Amino acid sequence: MRRWDRLEGLAHVEQLAAGSEGDPMSAAAVALGWSGVLVQDVRLFDTRVAMVVDVDVDAHTARWSQADGGLPMLDGDVLAMWEWPEGREVFPSCVVSLTGVLVPVGRSWRQALTVARHWRGFAATAIVTAPGGDGVGEECLLECAYSGVAVASSQMDRESVAVVQPGRPARMATARRGTLDRWVEEKLYERLLADGVLT
Length: 199
Description:
Layout: H1 13-19, H2 24-32, E1 37-44, E2 47-55, H3 57-64, H4 76-82, E3 96-104, H5 109-119, E4 124-129, H6 138-147, E5 150-154, E6 161-165, H7 179-194
Parallel strand pairs: 3-4, 4-5
Antiparallel strand pairs: 1-2, 2-3, 5-6
Helix pairs in contact: 1-2, 4-7, 5-6
């Protein structure tokens, strides 16, 4: 049994793509082969993106059995301790792990690529173009390939998305996991709790 199947109300990206017409972000996540839960309209670090996350149900259950009620931890000093290799058996495990970041192309693909470049140290990234929007030309594909950012394009029916160019399948190889990664995961955990996706 997959971990997300045991949570009520937790929708896998394939289910979202099949059940939500006109949602290019969930269709893009499926086209890119990313699995997990789609979190729409995430606003972090002065960016607005959609994120695909993997939820560890066992870690969520363990967190909720703690004395503090398992609330997300956003204190940087505490999170720094949680990330110590020596404390892996002592401190709480990550409930949410970031799989991919989808950046919608608004005014221009260059702006979307700039945002995607900021997130490539955390997970795989992709820009998603809208039909009739700023076109995907040779320059766009070259810049995205250089940065390891995938390019997905919504089709005219707005229900299907084609991967124009694949990107890096995970975070940059030179990006080490740190406290900021855990803070982002805790913010996403907070969001899933606030939205009622996790209870």
